UniProtKB/TrEMBL annotation:
It comes from Pseudooceanicola lipolyticus. GO terms for molecular function: 4-aminobutyrate:2-oxoglutarate transaminase activity; identical protein binding; pyridoxal phosphate binding. One of its GO terms (biological process) is gamma-aminobutyric acid metabolic process. The keyword Transferase applies. This is 4-aminobutyrate--2-oxoglutarate transaminase. The gene is gabT.
Amino acid sequence: SASNAALLARREAAVARGVASAAPVFAERAENAELWDVEGKRFIDFAGGIAVLNTGHRHPAVIAAAKAQEDRYTHTSFQVVPYEPYVALAEKLNALAPGDFAKKSLLVTTGAEAVENAVKIARAATGRPGVIAFTAGYHGRTLLTLGLTGKVSPYKRDIGPFPTDLYRLPFPSQRDGISVADSIRALEMLFLTDAQPDRVAAIILEPVLGEGGYHPAPPELWQALRTICDREGILLIADEIQAGFGRTGTWFAVEHSGVAPDLITVAKSMAGGYPIAGVIGRAEVMDAMAPGGLGGTYGGNPVACAAALAAIEAIESEGLLARSTAIGENMRARFADMGARVAPYRMWDIRGLGAMLAVEFVTDFDTATPDAALTKSVVAHALKRGLILLPCGMHGNALRIMVPLTASDAILDEGMGIFEAALADAMA
Ligand code: PMP
């Protein structure tokens, strides 16, 4: 059978350079929080395919639901012949989403597509073009979603111009000395300088910055944005693509703020490993576009719908929301202890919500200079020792925890043990 080295050589010759892989190993099979490469080496997976696997690799109920659906039909296109699983998933999403008002949903295939459609819907509903996003926010790789994404390298480098009428606000940041009041002042200033408020359709925000470093948006920011959006007739969009479906201990991370957004984008862990995404929103907003204005050949694929219904059911029946909170508390304590013993003054921050947790590394505590080199070294040593980790953050100096919420205590413990050993290796 193939070796990692042989496959890497073929990959380099055949696959565009722009698509990078964090781990130089090739997958052979995976189960819950474990993965084996083509050479038989076992890994614990703390990356979960970038926050897609809150219910783990190949959750038995998800696989069974997908297989059962495959035995009936795999594709009709909902726009040609509709099918029940799409409707059932929309009903489920409408019921789960926060907000005491009637909701409707749209299903698409990827997160970027969900964000694109949320913006289209917001523009149609308001008759306004503008969209306001935040620094360090990540919303996708299409031209509109890249325009909303607040990080140049590697995503936006060399491929502008982006669509017009996009604006950016500073996300509150302890590192950069930006308070919630500063962010809101910047918004009021933006209304005076560049963005005529009655020409703004929407403000989009991640409840916890994902690629941007697992920084939770303070509840007061959501509350202030809600007030201003209501005042100006602007729609508030929560991008829950990375934070949703139990990662933070609630179905949607925005629930921690008590604010109900007008539109919510979802993807990733909604379907436990199958490509599906969606927009959930106020019924009258979602209905702004005329029939035929929304869709896509594959949107809401039936196999992915069946998988999503099973993944959501597993989150409910296995108590994974409470499990997320417990994993988060346990890991927070463990990281605090590990940082003090193994990397004194180098683990600057342990942050997040529930099991959406990250640790940030610095060269020293006084200047808190980001240490991307140490972070990279921890990732490399962890991989050697059998743990898959993924960095995040504007400075590439944070490591995020996206481990399946279905992982056993023994696996979590083993993974954290490897993390600690890798950190010790990197400090040596
Ligand atoms: N929004 C957020 C918050 C994300 O984390 C991501 C993916 N990392 C996206 C949008 C884009 O999703 P996709 O990669 O499925 O297009």
